[in-house]
Amino acid sequence: MSKYYLNYLDELESEAIYVLREVWVQFQNPVILFSGGKDSIVVTHLARKAFYPSKIPFPLLHVDTGHNFPETIKFRNDLTKELGLELLVGSVQKSIDQGRVTEEKGKHATRNALQITTLLDTIEENKIDCAIGGGRRDEEKARAKERFFSHRDEFGQWDPKNQRPELWNIFNGKYFEGEHFRAFPISNWTEMDVWNYIKKEQIEIPSLYYAHERKVVWRSNSWIPHSEFLVLGEKEEVLIKKIRFRTLGDITITGGIESDADTLEKIVDEVAAMRNTERGNRSDDKRSETAMEDRKRQGYF
Amino acid sequence: MQIDNNQLLRFTTAGSVDDGKSTLIGRLLYDSKSIFEDQLRAIENTSRRRGHDGIDLALFTDGLRDEREQGITIDVAYRYFTTPKRKFIIADTPGHIQYTRNMVTGASTANAAIILVDARHGVIEQTKRHAFIASLLQIPHIIVCVNKMDLVDFNEEVYSKVIKEFEEFSSKFMIKDIRFIPLSALLGDNVVNRSKNMEWYQEAPLLHTLETLHISSDINKIDARFPVQTVLRPQREGFIDYRGYAGRVSSGVFRTGDEVSVIPSGLTSKIKTIDTFDGELEEAYAPMSVSITLDDDIDISRGDMIVRSKNLPETSQDIEVMLCWLNRTPAKPKAKYTIMHTSNEQKAIIKEIIYKIDINTLKSKSDGTTLCMNDICKVKIRTTKPLMFDSYRENRTTGSIILIDDATNETAAAGMIV
Q1: Measured between CB atoms, does B98 come within 8 Å of chain A?
Q2: Is residue A24 part of a domain?
Q3: What is the dihedral of CA A117, A120, A125, A129, to 10 degrees?
Q4: Which residues of B touch A154 (CB under 8 A)?
């Protein structure tokens, strides 16, 4: 006797596939925002499933801060080639060179906020009407209020107090010229769900997620990778540690944790036992209590 | 946690600042160990800064800047937690009358509703409103939490009185399953752990109740409905003639070989294959996302519905709907709206307001000629082409609609087909 209900992970997968198909029919020119991080990799994997046996009907869009992990870039290039997808790249360096944004200065300088301008410019240049992201509601308090289909005005801004109500599974993707949408197919997934899914589906992810030895600096309670972009403080020293990353962002702000988890099984076990949130190692979120909301309002991912 | 058989339960909580809703959610998250240390530290700091004793569990549900400043929930916030038995999604909604639309939104996808009653005050207008919305949206399970039992000396009589009051006023509602739990969110009695102060209560605490609610029958398993989202035509080697209808099963079960009808055209065929990326399936049931191919080449596109030939939905251009107005701009008389119903989209006009419901007294009134934000009313709607639908009571997916204001593109109303 077969059962007629889905387990929660299959239900989440089915929901995400449904959302991706809605994006495809409701928009003219959607893209997948691809950072090389696990969430955007999972979204890409889900898109593969949603349109099989057709290939993924969206290009990938990468906002390149110039401060990348080399591993991420290689992974991105290999994946787009394997799936036969078009890759769009928005370059923060180009935005700086063109005088669209000004680089932050000092030891804590990052290009995190600068990405907003580059992203919005790339969306406008390519006439993108929907950018699909791997954002999850469990990540951060401002994201807890996100819709699956999230409207952005002509300035690319999010107005959290004036969002369209989203009922049942009916998504309203209507917009006027110049506006666009962000779509979040894995809104209802948690970090644990993402890892369980990666393990279940045996999805390939960048080596950075697995424990490895690396030159690092202890800063803001996490191990920041040493790189050509890192400005060392007076008392900071470069050490070699066995670490892995729980999230991937800019190489300058993504902190690693000490870990021996070098297989998916070990990572899942480790995540299950974690007592801190994954974004706890992201200095971009630590700037204020509402750092994420403030960036999201302006047009951040 | 075992993935194989663990289900997903979505529940909604409605409540105001005072009845302890945020504290209850905080308690559930905290006692089920779903709160991370860095979140806890942040909350401890904020509690200290605001001069609270100890940690204020309610702060876990604080969201946007405005909400933090005003100390209230404005929008629906989603929270997640997992136990060894289930994954839970909480749609946390504000409870005040001016946020009826948010409660409706949160309720639309819920399997269960938690309705909070302050033991000291018993059933009040707000309780009735929340129960009404839960029944209107046909939430299959309702759990009435009689909170703040610590403030009434854990007295069984107080609890029994609430049950009696609740049973009386709710007897006219359509509620399938209702339970009552006496608890103290502040102290944790009967939330995750059984209360030592209320030996007279022999049933399960809240979390155990949530973990064991029978939800696999919540989705209609009888009427097979498959709204077509899009057509997959790969045009690549090995799949040159492939024509798959992609969608998510709304209800019922489809099997290969089933005789199906495509509506509105009425053309019939048989299911050839049910495909997924992971391989062909013998059968598909709600809420699975699949791609269906048919024996015959018939013209099918988005907005059409594949159904079992022996069990057809209703078809009509005139529908009666319980409508909740969601937008600040009131309904314009005789104005056209875009109606979205499953994957189908067309124009519609509100022909008549049959009656409005006074959300405070829950009585109908017929004086309504306008529809304003948060109004709930029964209306007649006419669409440009026939809709294929079931009543909302039988099918939450094929019985629900939204109206979109073409002037603003905003979602103006949500409706349940009667």
Answers
A1: no
A2: yes
A3: 180
A4: none
Tell me how far apart the alpha carbons of residues B162 and B123 are, in angstroms, rounded to a whole number: 6
Say if residue A28 is in the same domain as residue A128.
Answer: yes
The alpha carbon of residue B162 is apart from the nearest alpha carbon of chain A, in Å, by 31
Residue of A nearest to B109 (CA): A168
Is the same domain home to A272 and A294?
A: no
The A residues from 121 to 150 touching B (CB cutoff 8 Å) are 137-138, 141-142, 144-145
| Residues A239 and A176 reside in one and the same domain | no
A115/A144 same-domain check: yes
On whether the CB atoms of residues A240 and A256 are closer than 8 A, the answer is no
- What span, in angstroms and rounded, lies between the C-alpha atoms of A185 and B225? 23
Distance (Å) from the alpha carbon of A50 to chain B's nearest alpha carbon: 8
| Residue B302 to residue A25, Cβ atoms within 8 A | yes
* Cβ contact B139:B132 at 8 Å: no
* pLDDT values of chain B reduced to their tens digit, one per residue, 418 residues: 456 789 999 999 876 666 788 888 888 888 877 777 777 777 778 777 777 766 777 777 665 555 555 555 667 888 898 888 999 999 988 777 777 888 888 999 999 999 999 999 999 888 888 899 999 999 999 999 999 999 999 999 999 999 999 998 888 888 889 999 999 998 999 999 999 999 999 999 999 999 999 998 888 889 999 999 999 999 888 888 899 999 999 999 999 999 999 999 999 999 999 999 999 999 999 999 999 999 999 999 999 999 999 999 999 999 999 999 999 899 877 789 999 999 999 999 999 999 998 877 777 777 667 888 888 999 999 999 999 999 999 999 999 999 999 999 999 999 999 9
Question: How large is the ipTM?
Answer: 0.92
* Most distant CA atoms of chain B, gap in Å: 74
User: Taking CB atoms and an 8 Å limit, are B340 and A170 in contact across chains?
Assistant: yes
Based on the fold, state whether residues A172 and A220 are members of the same structural domain: no
Does the residue A252 lie in any domain? yes
Domain of residue A110, CATH code? 3.40.50.620
What are the backbone dihedrals phi and psi of residue A259, each rounded to the nearest 5 degrees, phi first? -160, 155
Are residues A160 and A63 located together in one domain of the fold? yes
How many structural domains is chain A composed of? 2
Is the separation of the CB atoms in A284 and A255 below 8 Å?
no
Mutate to test the interface with A, among B39, B65, B389 (most CBs of A within 10 A): B65
- Give contacts of A 58-77 with B, CB under 8 A: none
> Does A7 lie at the interface with B, CB-CB under 8 angstroms?
yes
Enclosing domain of residue A183: 8-193+289-298
Q: Which residues of A fall within a CB distance of 8 Å from B253?
A: 4
The answer to whether residue A2 sits within a structural domain is no
Domains and their CATH numbers in chain B: 7-212 (3.40.50.300), 225-308 (2.40.30.10), 314-417 (2.40.30.10)
Is B105 within 8 Å of chain A by CB? yes
In whole angstroms, what is the distance from residue B24 CA to residue B188 CA?
8
- The encoded tokens of residue A197 equal 């899914």
Mutation choice for B interface testing from A49, A162, A168, A287 by most B CBs within 10 A:
A168
